[in-house]
Amino acid sequence: MQTQRHQSVLTDKVLEYLLTKKDGIYIDATLGDGGYAEKILESLDSNGRVIGIDLDPLALINSKTRLKKFGKRIQIIRGNFAEVERIVREEVDVKYVDGVVFDIGLRNEHVEDPKRGFSFKRKGPLDMRFDIDQKKSAFTVLNKYPADKLSQIFKNYCDLRETNKLIFNILKARSVSPIGDTLKFTEIVMISYPKKLWNDVIPRVFQAIRIEVNNEYENLKSGLYGAVKILKTGGRVVVISYHSGEDRIVKNYFLQESKDCICPPRMPVCRCGHRKTLKVLTKKPLISRADEIEKNPRARSAHLRAAEKVEVLQ
Ligand SMILES: C[S@@+](CC[C@H](N)C(=O)[O-])C[C@H]1O[C@@H](n2cnc3c(N)ncnc32)[C@H](O)[C@@H]1O
Question: Where in the chain do CATH 1.10.150.170 domains reside?
Fold first, then answer.
């Protein structure tokens, strides 16, 4: 199936906040189709390099072709950004970098290719894996998880509280035969909520399953931690997220890392010994312009936050 090439969002802002040195080394932790990496490499001089990481081997096929023209200035690695520190230090043999960017949404192909199982509108297998070699898929979550775990997922990953009927219908359907495809699951969500809520609830429920399948929140936390460790003083971390749960993780992490002490407020003296590692560059998240949203509806929910590594005083 031929799908439309992924349209990167907020690219100008990514370049503005990420790039501090023309001959620097930058990590694109979610390389995807290579949209950001291409623009970054075009903005650097002939000594500037990009290391691109992605879990999805199908994305890497596209980015390899697109970025071939940059020769040795681009290095592409299949891996999980949760391990960015290890990948950069052990696989690439680089100790510190000038910037790391995370663009943590879906690629067009994930949504448009029904075989990937991300779409609630097109029939496909219940898959939703970024890493196609991973065992756990949406099928596993929907057919094997007990009721209390499903309830936690819907509560934590899409702020859905009224889930008893949905969980009852999932358990009922799978007691007859496994829930086998995306449209079957959409039907289950539909019979669990009044029609007026479908447009809101269906995407949110699919999002929650996807977050669970790909361990997205934990990966993001580890990725941010690793990125800050490998940044040089003055280096930048830029994150584009697409829903409030992810944005909250980034906001809280940046806030925590911009403080010298993170003891609970009632503690009379500092016991944590925490030292600030970041200066926040975006007080509020940056969002897309109206003309960008018109051309690319995915841009509507994009939020960009950026921070700069500071000298860590002991
Ligand atoms: C929105 S796309 C990136 C698009 C890219 N910025 C561009 O301009 O073409 C997000 C990518 O992140 C990848 N991804 C998601 N979770 C990941 C993880 N934990 N580690 C590495 N890549 C991940 C997905 O496979 C997907 O290709």
Answer: 132-213
Q: Rounded to whole angstroms, what are the CA distances from 273 to 215, 256, 263? A: 30, 13, 9
- Give the pLDDT confidence score for residue 21 in this predicted structure: 97
Residue nearest to ligand 1 atom 12, measured at CA:
30
Expressed in angstroms and rounded, the spacing between residue 149 Cα and the centre of ligand 1 is: 26
Ligand 1 centre distance from Cα of residue 271 (Å) = 38
Tokens read off for 31: 């390389």
Decide if domain 132-213 falls under CATH 2.30.30.700: no
Question: Where in the chain do CATH 3.40.50.150 domains reside?
Answer: 11-109+216-309
Ligand 1 pocket: which residues have CB below 6 Å? 6, 8, 30, 32-36, 53-56, 59, 80-82, 103, 105-107, 130, 214, 219
Q: What is the pTM of this model?
A: 0.95
Is the pLDDT at 2 greater than 60? The verdict is: no
Distance from Cα 103 to the centre of ligand 1, integer Å: 6
Query: 90 or 291, which is more confident?
Result: 90
Radius of gyration of the chain (CA): 21
**What fold characterizes domain 11-109+216-309?**
Rossmann fold (3.40.50)
C-alpha–C-alpha distance, residues 294 and 198, integer Å? 24
Is the pLDDT higher at 174 or at 298? Answer: 174
Per-residue pLDDT of 220-232, as tens digits, reads 999 999 999 999 9
